[in-house]
Design brief:
By secondary structure, this protein is mainly beta. It is built from no helices and eleven strands. Strands 2, 4, 5, 6, 9, 10 and 11 form a seven-stranded mixed sheet that branches. The chain is globular. It starts with a strand and ends with a strand.
Length: about 130
Protein backbone atom coordinates (compact mmCIF):
# COMPACT_ATOMS: atom_id res chain seq x y z
CA UNK A 1 0.00 0.00 0.00
CA UNK A 2 1.05 3.55 -0.70
CA UNK A 3 -0.50 6.47 1.12
CA UNK A 4 -0.54 9.93 -0.47
CA UNK A 5 -1.18 13.25 1.22
CA UNK A 6 -1.53 16.47 -0.76
CA UNK A 7 -1.05 19.99 0.57
CA UNK A 8 -0.58 23.51 -0.68
CA UNK A 9 -3.96 24.31 -2.12
CA UNK A 10 -5.71 27.57 -1.42
CA UNK A 11 -7.13 30.78 -2.84
CA UNK A 12 -5.12 32.78 -5.35
CA UNK A 13 -5.86 35.58 -7.78
CA UNK A 14 -5.72 34.98 -11.50
CA UNK A 15 -2.14 35.32 -12.67
CA UNK A 16 -0.79 34.15 -9.34
CA UNK A 17 1.10 31.02 -8.34
CA UNK A 18 0.72 28.07 -6.01
CA UNK A 19 2.87 25.05 -5.28
CA UNK A 20 1.19 21.78 -4.42
CA UNK A 21 2.99 18.99 -2.61
CA UNK A 22 2.22 15.30 -2.38
CA UNK A 23 4.08 13.12 0.09
CA UNK A 24 4.05 9.36 -0.22
CA UNK A 25 4.42 6.87 2.60
CA UNK A 26 4.22 3.11 2.95
CA UNK A 27 5.63 0.99 0.12
CA UNK A 28 7.20 3.94 -1.64
CA UNK A 29 9.89 1.74 -3.19
CA UNK A 30 7.19 0.33 -5.45
CA UNK A 31 6.28 3.70 -6.98
CA UNK A 32 7.37 4.01 -10.61
CA UNK A 33 5.70 7.31 -11.48
CA UNK A 34 3.49 9.98 -9.97
CA UNK A 35 0.79 12.05 -11.53
CA UNK A 36 -1.42 15.04 -10.84
CA UNK A 37 -5.06 15.15 -11.85
CA UNK A 38 -7.77 17.71 -11.24
CA UNK A 39 -11.54 17.78 -11.11
CA UNK A 40 -13.60 20.91 -11.49
CA UNK A 41 -17.25 21.05 -10.35
CA UNK A 42 -19.50 19.23 -12.78
CA UNK A 43 -16.60 17.92 -14.82
CA UNK A 44 -14.71 14.65 -15.05
CA UNK A 45 -11.33 14.27 -13.47
CA UNK A 46 -8.61 15.14 -15.95
CA UNK A 47 -4.90 14.51 -16.28
CA UNK A 48 -2.54 17.37 -15.51
CA UNK A 49 1.03 16.08 -15.33
CA UNK A 50 3.17 13.00 -14.76
CA UNK A 51 6.74 12.35 -13.67
CA UNK A 52 8.71 9.13 -13.59
CA UNK A 53 10.22 8.40 -10.23
CA UNK A 54 13.70 7.31 -11.31
CA UNK A 55 14.56 9.36 -14.36
CA UNK A 56 12.36 12.36 -13.72
CA UNK A 57 10.86 12.40 -17.21
CA UNK A 58 7.79 14.62 -17.36
CA UNK A 59 4.62 14.87 -19.40
CA UNK A 60 1.92 17.56 -19.33
CA UNK A 61 -1.57 18.16 -20.52
CA UNK A 62 -1.61 20.79 -23.26
CA UNK A 63 -3.74 23.07 -21.11
CA UNK A 64 -1.02 23.47 -18.47
CA UNK A 65 2.14 23.06 -20.51
CA UNK A 66 4.61 25.93 -19.89
CA UNK A 67 2.59 27.25 -16.93
CA UNK A 68 2.87 24.20 -14.62
CA UNK A 69 5.98 22.26 -13.60
CA UNK A 70 6.02 18.85 -11.96
CA UNK A 71 9.08 17.79 -10.00
CA UNK A 72 10.04 15.29 -7.34
CA UNK A 73 12.33 14.90 -4.36
CA UNK A 74 13.07 11.21 -4.03
CA UNK A 75 14.70 11.62 -0.63
CA UNK A 76 11.51 13.16 0.73
CA UNK A 77 9.16 10.88 -1.25
CA UNK A 78 7.44 14.04 -2.40
CA UNK A 79 6.21 15.29 -5.75
CA UNK A 80 5.45 18.93 -6.42
CA UNK A 81 3.28 20.82 -8.85
CA UNK A 82 4.36 24.41 -9.34
CA UNK A 83 1.48 26.31 -10.90
CA UNK A 84 2.15 29.74 -12.41
CA UNK A 85 -0.04 32.16 -14.32
CA UNK A 86 -3.12 30.57 -12.85
CA UNK A 87 -6.42 31.05 -14.64
CA UNK A 88 -9.99 30.74 -13.35
CA UNK A 89 -10.32 27.57 -15.41
CA UNK A 90 -7.55 25.99 -13.33
CA UNK A 91 -9.84 26.04 -10.31
CA UNK A 92 -10.44 22.46 -9.20
CA UNK A 93 -9.67 19.83 -6.62
CA UNK A 94 -6.17 18.57 -7.38
CA UNK A 95 -5.27 14.96 -6.72
CA UNK A 96 -1.94 13.20 -6.80
CA UNK A 97 -1.71 9.58 -7.80
CA UNK A 98 0.93 6.86 -7.71
CA UNK A 99 1.65 4.34 -10.45
CA UNK A 100 3.30 1.09 -9.32
CA UNK A 101 2.93 -0.78 -12.62
CA UNK A 102 4.16 1.42 -15.46
CA UNK A 103 7.40 3.35 -15.57
CA UNK A 104 6.91 5.07 -18.90
CA UNK A 105 5.74 8.56 -19.65
CA UNK A 106 2.66 9.78 -21.39
CA UNK A 107 0.13 7.81 -19.38
CA UNK A 108 -2.86 10.07 -18.86
CA UNK A 109 -5.61 7.63 -17.96
CA UNK A 110 -6.81 7.38 -14.39
CA UNK A 111 -6.82 3.61 -14.78
CA UNK A 112 -3.02 3.62 -14.98
CA UNK A 113 -2.72 4.80 -11.40
CA UNK A 114 -3.07 2.63 -8.35
CA UNK A 115 -3.16 4.95 -5.35
CA UNK A 116 -4.76 8.34 -4.84
CA UNK A 117 -4.58 11.16 -2.37
CA UNK A 118 -7.60 12.87 -0.85
CA UNK A 119 -7.24 16.00 -2.96
CA UNK A 120 -6.55 19.64 -2.26
CA UNK A 121 -8.72 22.55 -3.38
CA UNK A 122 -7.32 25.24 -5.65
CA UNK A 123 -9.50 28.32 -6.05
CA UNK A 124 -8.61 31.02 -8.56
CA UNK A 125 -10.41 34.33 -8.36
CA UNK A 126 -10.78 36.50 -11.43
Amino acid sequence: QVQLVESGGGLVQAGGSLRLSCTASGRTFSVLAMGWFRQAPGKEREFVARITWSGGATYYADSVKVRFTISRDNAKNTVYLQMNSLKPEDMAVYYCAADVRYSGIGYTSEARYDYWGQGTQVTVSS
